[in-house]
Each structure stands twice: as structure tokens, then as C-alpha cells.
Amino acid sequence: MQERNARQAAEGHIRGGIRRHPSSTRAGADPLTHFSRRHTLAYPKRSHHGQATGRRRHPTLSLVSLALAILASGCASLDLVQSGSLSSYDNLGQQKGSLGKSRSFADPAVMATVKTVRIIPTRFSDRASGRIAQPQDRALVTHALDRALCIALSDRYQIVASDQPADLTIRNVISDVVPTGKAAAGVATAVSLGSSVVLPVSVPRLPVGLGGLAVEGEAVDATGTQRAAILWAKGANSITSKPRVSEVGDAYQLASAFGSDFSQLMIKGKMPTALDIALPSGQRINSHFGGKPKYAACDTFGREPGIPGMVAGMVGAPPEWTDKAGQKTMAP
Q1: What's the pLDDT at 298?
Q2: Based on the domain organization, do 8 and 147 belong to the same domain?
Q3: What whole-number distance in Å separates Cα of residue 250 and Cα of residue 280?
Q4: Residue 191 has what pLDDT?
Q5: Cα(263)–Cα(243) distance, rounded to whole angstroms?
Q6: Which residues contact 1 (CB under 8 A, 6 or more apart)?
Q7: Over the stretch 146-179, which tens digit does the pLDDT of each residue have?
Q8: Whole-angstrom Cα distance, residue 170 to residue 316?
């Protein structure tokens, strides 16, 4: 009897400390059950189909969105530009991208049968030529673009000289350029080098005087039919773009980025995404360090400056200090 009374008193004490739910007043309702239900509200509710509703956003996605917002706030703005050099603009898809913009088209079925490719040297449009005064600077950018494209396409296709017949012919035109502010790049380089002495990481580049590049290109077959095409524009940003004291410092770096994107469009039939990360092939690594390219046709555009070029880029030196392709001037 005493044990029963003690047990009832203990249960009453527990129940008395639990906040009662209004529905617990009905017959047979157990407040312990409502206590459990109240604490399950911290989890996502589920519909009668078992699907979660009102789910919180994953923290990783929030961090990615924040990073993109920071990059966009310190990025040169450049629109896609049609210079009229493409045989057709009708095949291009919708504009994609935020930090870099593009419209593209590729015929994967045809690309899978292609064996040989030739690259016509890239040229500047009249509009873009007017923004970069020195022919040597323009040649630096066009050679960097063609070289990056040639080396990347060598992973999949045989590259032949521009005066030889091929399954596909590639033509690119630089449709617009935003020159890099040389003074701002010099200050940013000095700040970056100075901060590296006292800080474990370098400070972001000043969002002033950032350059940009817009390009349009296409690949046509022997009949002149367009099999791949791209409109592309991208500006330098404060985080990933290294300042170089040259009017084409940013355009020079972005030219290589275009070559990489266009080559992936041709090889895979679609534009690459930020998550498309793969180890470079042996021939690309060799070329990156200034070695002999896989196909002799790529030597037309000069070789990568290798380690000296990397060091020059780290200290903000003009690209012409180590890349001698600019000495081979081309017609505007």
C-alpha cells in the first residue's frame, strides 16, 4: 500500500512539472505524449506523402551563395557582345552564368565523329581594337587564347595547321575588352606583396581598375555549317584575379579561361560548371610548364612561359616580360 502511494506521488510530481497541452484535457489524453509531440516540432514537418516541408537551407549552399555575392560585388561587369562574326546566332541557347556570362551551342553527335581541327588565329573586332592601343598587347591576348584552346583540344582532336584541311575550322573574335587600370594594378600588387610579409594570407585585390574580356567563336565543318558556337564575357574579380601591371593584364588571364571553356563545350557538348574539376592530362601539364606541345600546330601561338611566367604573375609583372608571343604582332 505504501509502495503504491509512493509511486502515485512520483507520477503526480512528474506530470505536474509538464506543461499541459489544451487537448490533454480530453478523456484518455496523456500529457507525456504531448510533451513528446511538442519537442518534435524542431524537425521538418512532413506532408501526408512523407515529403519534408519547410526544410532549412543547407549551410553549404548558404556559404556558396555568400561567396558568389562577394565575388560579384568586386567583379568587372561586361555584357555579351555580338560583333557579327558568327555565321549564325540562331542556334545559341539562353544566357547563363553570373560571374561569367555565356550563350552556347554544340552538336554532340557531330563532335563525336570529328578527328581533325584547325584554328584560325584570333583577331580583334574594330570595337575591341580601339580599346587596346598597342598591337603587341593585342597579340599577347590572342596568342594566349589560341594557345589555351589548342592545347586543351589536343586531348581529344588532332590539331593541324591553319592552312591544312580539317573536319572542323575554329574562328574566334575578341568582341570587347575592358583595359586593366595599370596604376590600380600596381597599387594592388604592392598591397598584396606587403601584406604577405606580415599576414599568412594575401588580402583581396582592390575592386578598382578591373579588366574584362568578351569573345565570340564558332566551329564550322567543311561545308561551312556551324557545329558549335559561343558568346562569352567575363570580368576580373577581387578574389581570384591576380593584378598585373599591364593594360591587358586581366584580358591575358581571361583569354586562357575562354580557351578552356570553349574546348570543353566542343569535347563534352556542354559548358563546364564550377564543379567540373578534373586532373589535367600529361600533355597539358607538359605544355603548362613550357614544354613542347602535343601537336606542332600549337607552336604557332607560342609556348607557355612556364615557371618564369608563374613567378611574374605572382609579383604582378606585365605578361610580356616572360611571354614572348606578343613580339609576333598580328594585324588588328
Answers
A1: 97
A2: no
A3: 23
A4: 62
A5: 26
A6: none
A7: 999 999 999 999 999 999 999 999 999 999 999 9
A8: 32
**Parent domain of 177:** 78-327
**Helices H / strands E in the chain, number of each:** 10, 9
pLDDT per residue as tens digits for the range 127-150: 999 999 999 999 999 999 999 999
Q: Inform me whether the pLDDT recorded for 210 exceeds 90.
A: yes
Of 130, 189, 117, nearest to 159 by C-alpha is 117
Looking at every residue in the chain, the average pLDDT score rounds to 81
Question: What is the distance between the alpha carbons of residues 14 and 136, in angstroms, rounded to a whole number?
Answer: 86
Residue 96 phi, psi (nearest 5): -130, 160
pTM, two decimal places: 0.74
82 and 211 belong to one structural domain: yes
DSSP collapsed to 3 states, 15-31:
HHCCCCCHHHHCCCCCH
How many structural domains comprise the chain? 2
In sequence order, what DSSP letters do the residues of 271-325 get, joined into one string? ---TT---PPPHHHHHHHTT---SSGGGGGG----HHHHHHHHHTT--GGGT-GG
**Cα dihedral sign, 283-287-290-296:** positive
54, part of any domain: no
Interval 34-59: pLDDT, tens: 444 444 444 444 545 555 454 455 55
Amino acid at 4: R
